[in-house]
Specification:
Blueprint: H1 10-19, E1 24-25, H2 28-33, H3 40-45, E2 58-60, H4 65-77, E3 82-85, E4 103-106, E5 113-117, E6 122-126, H5 131-140, E7 143-144, H6 157-163, H7 170-173, H8 176-179, E8 180-186, E9 192-194, H9 203-207, E10 216-223, E11 225-226, E12 230-238, H10 241-253, E13 260-264, H11 266-271, H12 280-286, H13 290-300, H14 303-309, H15 312-319, H16 322-331, E14 336-344, H17 346-362, E15 366-367, H18 371-378, H19 388-392, E16 395-405, H20 406-420, E17 425-431, E18 437-447, H21 451-471, H22 490-494, H23 498-508, H24 523-526
Parallel strand pairs: 2-4, 3-4
Antiparallel strand pairs: 1-2, 5-6, 6-10, 7-11, 8-9, 8-10, 12-14, 12-15, 13-14, 13-17, 16-18, 17-18
Helix pairs in contact: 1-4, 10-17, 13-15, 20-21
Length: about 525
Amino acid sequence: MAVVESSEDGLVVALRGLLGADAVSNEEAERRAYASDMWPRHQIWKMGPTPVRHRPLCVARPTTEGQIQAVVRACRAANAPLIPYGAGSGVCGGTMPIRPRSVVLDVRRLDRLVSLDDLDLTVTAEAGIHGMLFEEELLARGYTLGHYPSSILCSTLGGWLAARSAGQQSSKYGKIEDMVVSLRAVLPDGDVVETGSGQPVDWTQILVGSEGTLGVVTRATLRVHVRPEAQVFRGFRFRTVDEGLHALRRIMQAGLSPHVARLYDPFDTMLHSSSKSGSPAEEAGRTATGPMSALRDLFSAPVAEVKRRAPKAAIALALSVPGVLARLVEALPATCLLILGFDGTRSDAERDLEAATKLALAGGGIDGGSGPGERWLAHRHAVSFKQSALFDAGAFVDTMEVSAPWSRVLEVYRGVRAAVSPHAFVMAHMSHAYREGCSLYFTFAGYKGDAAGLERLYDRVWAEGLTAVIRCGGSISHHHGVGLSKRDAMRREHGAGLRLLYSMKDVLDPSGLMNPGKVLPDRAVEG
């Protein structure tokens, strides 16, 4: 006889006593909704017979730091796993409950902008504050955080801190770990730690990126900047990825600080093309037929038009022959688009753009004017909302962001494409550029006729892609976090260094109850 989980579980009753009946839910619909984040592997499960494989015991919604402490202590006493949860937009399975009687701790009711310091240029806010609302409030007061992840419409400050998020303007403003000055967090024993300068250990940087495995961040103080007066853009065409990377590296190492720096490979360039610019690659892309046409429409058409312009049969045909698609893309007249943007006072932004333009032209770039950057700005968040059409067609799409020093970027780009292209279509752009290197942002798309086959294909693509990254000298994550998706590759990249992380986990969370199974490979499974 199947065991039915009681709605009167003692922990649920205890949590309701701590938070109030309306702040703790174990309704089936809620448990299903919180069973995963936006990890594409979970979206594949929805195509098969078991769409939900792991459900939490309940969802708790505290409104204060003190209530979070109470929940942490109650879960510890009950030996129940606890998973901090923001807006659920993560793509690495970082909030998926994988052990029985897990409690999801939704922190979105802690959503205040606490204070803004005009002298220190810092802001303090609670972890559950919504990303776009946070930035809009800062802009209204004359400031900016400078943090614009593509998920800003559906993510929280706590999520940014948990995954070491990078916004689209990180080349100038840095990633979230560069912005955070200090934070408050509830540790696994229920005590509160407040980090800051002058401490013998930099607890801020230990907790940032730990994905809830070491505690629950409740608020943070971050650096802000005066709202820029203007932003200016220019696009450049390069014959090859190598040529574009060389120019981008020279710009970053010349001391310039573009707030936007994005280099697209040939297919990704085709997707960002204007119908009026008339380059050979764009003409080839616009007049493409068959699988190439379906693939172009799949990635570039508005969601409402995908079904009309790229029906399921065409999507299946296109993605069933990834090797053929790779050869078709390689046959396109190879141009790569580099978009640069500078902000600040108008005079400073225009001066820096002119200096970068000279370097880009000297490196073989062809000036494409301001149009490419302005078009990118107008659609900068659209990518996060186009995946559903592909899954609806029985395919998968996912992105893998990694990073590498300049000496290894091209090798990682070529290595991942060689490893993945026999199995799935792959394209990439390089962004989040710095003096030392940049992020490579790959997009994969694959198709199989059944959910089980699609899941096997998905796992193979990820395994071979991450193996290629490590083999070629890159790092497996830059800003999406690790979660479940990249967890098992951590040992291959960090080796014996993982012992330090295990030791820290053992000291802070000896029972292993804080978001178990994430970030670190499971030693019990590994033996």
